[in-house]
Amino acid sequence: MVKYGLDYTRCRWILPLLLGIGVIFGIIALAGRGWLESQTLPYVQQASLWQSCRRFEEGGDWTCESLMSYAWGRAAAATYLVGFILLVICFALAIIAFAIDTLRFNFIRGIGGLLFVAAVFSIMGLVIYPVKFSTEIEMTGINMFSWAYGFGWTTAIMEICLGFFFCCLPNYEDQILGNVKPTYFYSSP
After folding, report:
1. Is the pTM for the entire model greater than 0.85?
2. Domains plus CATH for the chain?
3. pLDDT digit string (tens) for 132-141?
4. What is the pLDDT of residue 124?
5. DSSP E strands: which ranges in 15-152?
6. Which is nearest to 113 in space by CA: 146, 137, 89?
7. Which are the contacts of 45, defined by CB distance < 8 A and separation ≥ 6?
8. Which residues contact 131 (CB under 8 A, 6 or more apart)?
9. Could you identify which of 33, 61, 97, 158 might form a hypothetical disulfide with 48, taking C-beta atoms 3.0 to 4.6 angstroms apart as the criterion?
10. Is residue 145 helix, strand or coil?
């Protein structure tokens, strides 16, 4: 990306595209019912960020209770949701920043800083949830934190990595804009 500069049409949109993928992963984590699941048959427990469902007998109906009745459930949902909203704001700002012909590198660095703040909020929600869930709610059988919880962690890791990219990109401003005189390694005979 640095070799061709951000004017190279395919490279210019890589960072906003990765942010968009992070937004999709965040939506999957928020909507997914697989934050916690029973590991073995018969499946008796399934939980999302919003509710916990339990089945008492095989083939029976699921009984669900809202996690929003617990203070830690509201805290985990709120912090993860704030991190997700900040990620969406960063995605919109990145689209604006890279659509402008003249890049504002301080603006890009600000997006990186905001991504770090989003990562902090996301990680707080991802840590509160399993710690308090396992101590406050009775779990039967063997349970595991599952695919939707993994998408939440993937989103948080993407926020951190993209934050580094957005913060470090202005350090290569001259190379990106083509203001550096090329050096040739040529020796005359």
Report:
1. no
2. 8-170 (1.20.140.150)
3. 888 888 777 7
4. 95
5. 36-38, 45-47, 51-54, 63-66, 143-145
6. 89
7. 36, 37, 38, 52, 53, 54, 55, 139, 140, 141, 143
8. none
9. 33
10. strand
